[in-house]
């Protein structure tokens, strides 16, 4: 290796989380689209197994985009086994690290938003544990629940509404406790609990206020209004499914008006600046 190369080592590549939106290629942002036009970056994308195609890769294919010469599936099994997950994250990290160390950017394609229940965070942390110098920027994307509400003309929240976004896998009892404090519940990963959730919605009188959406934005998207949800009892639904539950029964407490309102004594030396802060 020459002395010049030792003094100026090649720049490291970046692991970039490229959010694609939930399924409609039209929801790919301009920032993500610009990254996907590059010919000098490697594409990687998650899949549950070698027999299951990558949903993220399907989105870019439906967008008419051709992958670069270097592109690879990374396997992330659907399991709650911590040891199996850690091994999968490590294998994925060890796959992308040589490209990064050689100075190539690696795009990790993610359906929805890379910061919301996505595999990118696990991969990014594992890569940085192997080499803390690697930069891991994220390009934000459209969440499935935001796209679902927009497509149905249904506001996700208005004025002072409260929202809870939770995996339904915590169980019906945990979800039920949220009704006291939240006007809208976004229930993710509802597949394992469909029958239990239908029973709970019925008991709570929430069926008419619920929407079930499967594979938001994809050609085979399916939506079921709450009153029709019992027809799904005992059927299989996609992992990429969610429910949006509006909670009209919530009793709201008193809300504090004015975000700059001061409720505690202010030291004398701060009086002048506080007066300026609280003027409207």
**Helices and strands: which structural class?**
alpha/beta
* Fraction of residues in H or I helices: 25-40%
* Rg computed from alpha carbons, rounded to a whole number of angstroms: 23 Å
The fraction of residues assigned to DSSP E strands is 15-25%
> How many helices does DSSP assign?
9
SSE string, helix = H, strand = E? HEHEHEHEHEHEHEHEEEH
Number of strands: 10
Shape: elongated
Oligomer: single chain
Question: What does the average pLDDT come to?
Answer: 89
Task: Summarize the structure in short.
The protein is of the alpha/beta class and 280 residues long.
Write the layout of secondary structure elements.
Layout: H1 3-7, E1 15-19, H2 30-36, E2 42-47, H3 55-62, E3 71-75, H4 82-101, E4 106-110, H5 120-130, E5 138-139, H6 144-151, E6 163-167, H7 172-176, E7 184-188, H8 194-203, E8 210-214, E9 222-225, E10 241-246, H9 271-278
Parallel strand pairs: 1-4, 1-5, 2-3, 2-4, 6-7
Antiparallel strand pairs: 7-10, 8-9, 8-10
Helix pairs in contact: 4-5
Task: Describe the protein in words.
This protein has helices spanning 3-7, 30-36, 55-62, 82-101, 120-130, 144-151, 172-176, 194-203, 271-278, and strands at residues 15-19, 42-47, 71-75, 106-110, 138-139, 163-167, 184-188, 210-214, 222-225, 241-246. Helix 4 packs across helix 5. By secondary structure, the protein is an alpha/beta fold. Helices cover 29% and strands 17% of the residues. It is elongated, with a radius of gyration of 23 Å. The chain has nine helices and ten strands. It has a five-stranded parallel β-sheet, sandwiched between helices. The chain has a five-stranded mixed β-sheet with strand order 6-7-10-8-9, with helices on one face. The model is unreliable at 1-6 and 271-280 (pLDDT under 50). The N and C termini lie far apart (65 Å). The longest helix is centred in the first third of the chain and has 20 residues, at 82-101.
């Amino acid at each position: 290796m020459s002395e010049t190369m030792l003094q100026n080592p090649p720049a490291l590549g970046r692991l970039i989380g490229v959010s694609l939106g939930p399924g409609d290629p039209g929801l790919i942002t301009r920032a993500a689209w610009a990254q996907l036009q590059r010919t000098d970056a490697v594409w990687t994308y998650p899949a549950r197994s070698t027999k299951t195609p990558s949903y993220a890769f399907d989105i870019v294919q439906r967008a008419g985009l051709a992958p670069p010469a270097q592109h690879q599936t990374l396997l992330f099994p659907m399991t709650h086994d911590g040891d199996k997950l850690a091994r999968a994250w490590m294998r994925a990290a060890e796959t992308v690290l040589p490209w990064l160390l050689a100075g190539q950017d690696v795009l990790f394609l993610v359906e929805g938003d890379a910061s919301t229940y996505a595999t990118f965070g696990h991969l990014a942390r594992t890569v940085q544990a192997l080499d803390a110098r690697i930069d891991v920027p994220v390009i934000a994307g459209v969440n499935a629940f935001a796209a679902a509400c927009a497509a149905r003309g249904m506001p996700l929240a208005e004025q002072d509404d409260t929202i809870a976004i939770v995996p339904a896998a915590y169980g019906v009892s945990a979800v039920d406790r949220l009704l006291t404090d939240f006007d809208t519940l976004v229930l993710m990963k509802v597949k394992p609990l469909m029958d239990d959730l239908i029973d709970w919605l019925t008991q709570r009188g929430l069926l008419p206020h619920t929407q079930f959406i499967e594979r938001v934005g994809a050609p085979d998207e399916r939506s079921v209004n709450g009153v029709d949800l019992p027809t799904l009892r005992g059927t299989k639904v996609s992992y990429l499914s969610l429910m949006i539950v509006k909670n009209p029964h919530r009793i709201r407490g008193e809300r504090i008006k004015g975000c700059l309102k001061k409720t505690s004594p202010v030291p004398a030396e701060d009086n002048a600046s506080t007066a300026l802060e609280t003027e409207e």
